[in-house]
Amino acid sequence: MSSFLMISDDRNYRTVKHDGFTRGEKLTYLVHYGFINAGEATVEMNKELYTLNERPCYKVEIKGKTIGLITTTFDVDDSWLSYIDTSAIIPHLFARKIKENDYRKDETTSFDHIKKKATVKSVTGTDPEVKKDFVIPSNVQDIVSGYYFLRTLDFDKYKANDTIVVAGFFEEKVYNLKVVYKGKEKLHTKFGRILTAVLSPIMPENALFDGRDAIRFYVSDDPNRVPVKIEARMLVGAIELDLIDHKGLVSKFRKR
Q1: Nearest of 16, 26, 154, 138 to residue 89 by alpha carbon
Q2: How far is Cα 66 from Cα 85, in angstroms, rounded to an integer?
Q3: Where are the domains of the chain?
Q4: CB 80 within 8 A of CB 109
Q5: How far, CA to CA in Å, does 42 sit from each of 12, 61, 88, 123?
Q6: C-alpha dihedral sign at 223, 83, 129, 117
Q7: Who wins on pLDDT, 238 or 157?
Q8: Residue 93 near residue 111, CB atoms below 8 Å
Q9: pTM (two decimals)
Q10: Which of 18, 94, 183, 244 could pair with 142 as two cysteines, CB 3.0-4.6 Å apart?
Q11: How far is CA 189 from each of CA 143, 194, 212, 219, rounded to the nearest angstrom?
Q12: How far is CA 32 from CA 169, 226, 229, in A?
C-alpha cells in the first residue's frame, strides 16, 4: 500500500514515496448529464520521463470534450498539461488550452520552487500575451499534480470527516484546497463491486456548483487510488463521470 513520507533534500525539495501510479497509465471517463452522454475525458501519463529545472518529471495530459447533441449549445474541447516532479510530486510546468464555444485561452505557468515563484503567461482570444509573477508557498500544486498528490495518501490513516489541506495555485491565485475524507463506500462499477474512499472538496460559494460539498470523488481503495466515479451537483442539474476504460494500472482493482 502507498505510504506518505516527506523528506527535505539539500535543495529543499521534499520526497513523497508512492507506488500507486506509473508511466503509461491512461484513464478514460464518460460524462453524463442526466440521461445524456455529454462528454469524454482522458487522463494520461506519458511513458517517457522529462527533465525540467534539472529534475525528472512525469508528463500528464488531461483532455475533455463534449460529445453528441450537447455540442450544439455548449461545445468544449479543453486540455490541461502538467510536468510533475517524480519525487516531490509538485509541478514544474502547467499549461492549459481552453476552447469553450467562442472563448479561447492559452496559459502556461512555470514554477520555481526554490525561489518560490510562479510565472504565468496567458493569451485570451486575440489579445496580446500577458506575463505576471506570483509568490507561491512550499510544495504548491496545480490542479493536475494535486490530483496525483492525493493519490499518494493512505486513507486508512484518516477518520471520517477529517480534512486534508493542500496548497494550490490556479487562475493566478494561491489558495488552500480543503478536501474532506467522508469514509469508505462500496460502489457498483463497470469493473465490478469496488470499495472506495470518498473525498469531497470544500467548494467556495460560486455560480456553478450547488453547495460546499457539491463534488464527490469515489477513489478505489487499493494501491491505485483511481477515481472510478465523480459526482457534481450543479445549479442546473447533476453531472457524473464514470471510469469506462483503464490501461497501465499498477495493480488490479480489489473486488468487494
Answers
A1: 16
A2: 31
A3: 26-247
A4: no
A5: 33, 8, 24, 25
A6: positive
A7: 157
A8: yes
A9: 0.90
A10: 94
A11: 25, 7, 26, 12
A12: 28, 19, 11
Taking residue 102's Cβ as centre, other Cβ atoms within 10 Å add up to 7
Name the phi and psi angles at 65, rounded to 5.
Answer: -150, 150
